[in-house]
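<derive_structure_tokens>
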Amino acid sequence: TRHAWHGTAQQLARNGYHCHTADGRGHGDSGWVNGGSYTLDQFVDDATRLAGQCKQAPVWVGASMGGLLGMIAATEIEDLRLRALVLVDITPRWETRGVERIMAFMRSHPHGFASVHEAQDAVRAYLPHRANDQNPERLRKLLVPTGNGRLRWHWDPALLETVAAESARWSDRLVAAARQLRLPVLLISGGRSDLVSERTVAEFQQLVPHAEHRCIADATHMVACDANDRFTEVILDYLN
């Protein structure tokens, strides 16, 4: 959601950068697709339209799927102009075990939670390194009340099956996109990520030799949440 970028956007704005943050399709306050028929090309179109609204060529910062969309849009959309691309813990190929762990968490608790504190317990089990760093009000922004008084995560459950099934078939397309990248590229990885590894980073650097790479050692795949200050410093240093 846009909330994941709030702290970084505020800091970049203080340094003179104009920032847009957005809820992805089917996430946060954005609408859901009728019938749950999501496709990754829909997300690429969303990214293209969002970036195209900027008066100047923007720097696209995308975490996980957002990074993949930026790669595709930057190389496949002829009229789109991006100034640079920042990929946050994502490479054209990724570790399958890490994806499976993420999907297992997202599929858990299909009936939601009785309270924010119950949701906190679920997050603590998934991210034990952040057990003492869960602000209930921050977490509440990621939960939506249901008709029966329970709380559910902010995403459309239909996303899980359709996007997961498609993304597995996108590997060749993403590798081809990476090879075509000519704009400045920064890859920020989490040293404790189970999605991006030394192997996938090395392959990415072969595909995009001019790309820069920064690793935030104690961050997991959730880089912006695990180490927001250092994450923002890396982006600001790169932009400057």
User: Anything to note?
Assistant: The longest strand covers residues 185-190. The mean pLDDT is 93. The two ends are 26 Å apart (CA to CA). Residues 179 and 207 are 5 Å apart (CA to CA).
